[in-house]
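Fold these two proteins, one after the other.
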Amino acid sequence: KKFSFLSRRCFAMSHSKVKYISGELSYQIDQELMGEEFAFSVDQLMELAGLAVARVCYRQHPPRASKKALVLVGPGNNGGDGLVAARHLKHYGYAPHILYPKQPQKDLYMRLTKQCQTMEIPVSSSVEDFKSQHMKDEWEIIVDALFGFSFKPPVRAPFDDLLPALVELSKTVPVVSVDIPSGWDVQDGPASDFADFQPATLVSLTAPKCGAKHFKGNHWLGGRFVPKSLEEKYELNIPVYPGSEDIVLLPNTDE
């Protein structure tokens, strides 16, 4: 497959040996992981990714007084990671609440939602009700699993109403974004509409994305599932995960 000039330039970027990759290459790697050679299923990858997100949450922002964790879930695979993370957060002692405005009627997402509901995790869908009833709740942490590397602007309803609320909440509540902060351009980082959105923590999955070069907070890499041959094929230079850990803290980048 041929990559655009921008993708090739982005693909070649690295920092402290860690490769920052384009959304286009991220998609290709996912397809290869789920292809004949490596034979992963999407729900396997989602489970490993969501578990890594939950572990970063616990390591970086452990539950304290209220234990309340808001999990914002989008309609795609990034949202699926958030549903998995919510389930594990419940096991870790948090009291998660899922806001899932646009729920696909696909078997995988329906099963992930059911798993959360059977663990007595509240799942709501109304952004309007959330803003009027829960914006001022004592949230200890917010998991931003709205949009991933395949996001293309503009932000559409109901997320055009939710994202400004997330940005406002991020000023007082630590936000953990999954793979790329929602609303950011996967190539270029903060979009003009969300230029001041800097989550406290970012969990990159598989490899950090080009836009994450603009991230200034706690940057973790998770998803310890990339086969060595695939890592070497794309020169990802994935850092060594310590011991049995499936998350590793990345160095800060210089703008």
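Now the second one:
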Amino acid sequence: PEIRALGWTTVPDDFNARFSAQARQYKYFIVQQCRPSSGSAEPAAASLNIERMREAAQHFLGEHDFRNFCKADVTAVKTFRRRVMSFSIDPVGVADSESGCQVFALNLRGTAFLWHQVRCMAAVLLMVGRGQEDPGIVHTLLDIVATPCKPQFTMAAEEPLLLYACDFQDLHFRRTERAVEAYQEVLYAALSRNLVASALVSSMLTRTYSDSKTPVIGEVAGVSRSHVLLSKRPCEPSVEERARRLGLPWPHDAQVGDAAIAE
């Protein structure tokens, strides 16, 4: 099952599992590829520049207006200001030496997050990692005076996103060793299945580099799609315009950390 209860605790009558959380921690997993050059066993340049992504991620730290890094919903959100307490990009213990792939995790912790905020943040960081955007684009998008409307871009995929932890004040969960061990067995089984699947794909990929290739006369190379800078793209309606269309006042009176729409 996708949901399991591993422990319990007593809570106040006004407790809300969503709005009583003081902080949330997300992980978003990405893959760094180092593909061999054509006709050579030497690794090519890495597919993502992790250091540039780390530089860009530092702009997220602190309290900012994240309207350009979410799916704006002016009917449910009173303020787009959120506080990111920490952000790091770290390698995890999953790698494949044959294919040159290394998994990294975007680790971020904040008081609350807006709808699709993490996936939008990840999408922009991946553009930076691929060399399509400068690390300073994060600062530019956080400046709602310079960038009052969100440029149109596709958010990162949902599958790599994990809500890793929530912090609650003065809550101490009771967990039985048996319940935890039973769930660990489920996770080990899932991990084993996915590691075997990864090994199968890696072996097939490695074989494609060892097979001989016959050049084809007149072969046409694939057409690459050029990247349009975020600063040059059409923009979505501003938050103020969205509210005006719905006949809602904006801004609402609110404090940072008001009811957030989670990922």
